[in-house]
Amino acid sequence: MTTEIEVELVSAWPGRCESLRLGVPEGSSVADALRRAGELGFAPAATADITCLAVFGRAATAATLLHAGDRIELLRPLLADPKQRRRDRAGQKRF
Predict the structure, then answer these.
(1) More reliable by pLDDT, 76 or 64
(2) CATH number 3.10.20.30 given to 4-91
């Protein structure tokens, strides 16, 4: 008999936020949780970019193992490299 743990998937976009709590077998990975959420009709899981995932704000991969109470965050891809943006702003002339 396998023990189930509860995890939460969260997708936050400008103007909307969606979340889903679900049970997955102990020892499941982020990919397993995404697959299960997709089966339950959680649309953000079906369209999630597996290169843009986090668990409690820390970068995660599809293979990251989950623990009870984990929050999987479905992130948006970066539009620009933050370091390069800072360099660009620092190089601008100021009046």
Answers:
(1) 64
(2) yes
